[in-house]
Amino acid sequence: MVRDERRFKMADKDGDLIATKEEFTAFLHPEEYDYMKDIVVQETMEDIDKNADGFIDLEEYIGDMYSHDGNADEPEWVKTEREQFVEFRDKNRDGKMDKEETKDWILPSDYDHAEAEARHLVYESDQDKDGKLTKEEIVDKYDLFVGSQATDFGEALVRHDEF
């Protein structure tokens, strides 16, 4: 409840305690709004920082993605994530990520969500790998498109005659 209230206050730009459509959308999808980015970082750190020291160390970082089962060797992707943490995430090399390092990790400035989603849809649907999607390829992967934010969760498929 405290978390939701804090997020709502941040989303409520005019402070009137009534959410406009944009403010409500910012509350639901804060990562899409520049003025909400700090709350995304704060919530992420609260979720992952298990020892509550205000930082994310390597074990907390890995523990958020992978739970070690007994004597089994770590999968290769976990080893890769460990390397990513040491080489790229922990920029000041102090063994933990602070707020800025966490922000760079979860909200990279050079990442375009729409482009990434479009590439994903084409990659998953383009059966003949010609870089173009036919009506048949889209219909074949209809569930993928209906679940995609790029198609407004399927609404764009209904509104456009060419689909």
UniProtKB/TrEMBL annotation:
PROSITE patterns: EF_HAND_1, EF_HAND_2. Pfam families: EF-hand_5. Keywords: Calcium, Endoplasmic reticulum, Glycoprotein, Golgi apparatus, Membrane, Metal-binding, Repeat, Sarcoplasmic reticulum, Secreted, Signal. It is found in: Endoplasmic reticulum membrane; Golgi apparatus; Melanosome; Sarcoplasmic reticulum lumen. GO terms for molecular function: calcium ion binding. The keyword Heme does not apply. Gene3D superfamilies: EF-hand. The keyword Metal-binding applies. GO terms for cellular component: endoplasmic reticulum membrane; extracellular region; Golgi apparatus; melanosome; sarcoplasmic reticulum lumen. Belongs to the CREC family. This is Calumenin. The gene is CALU.
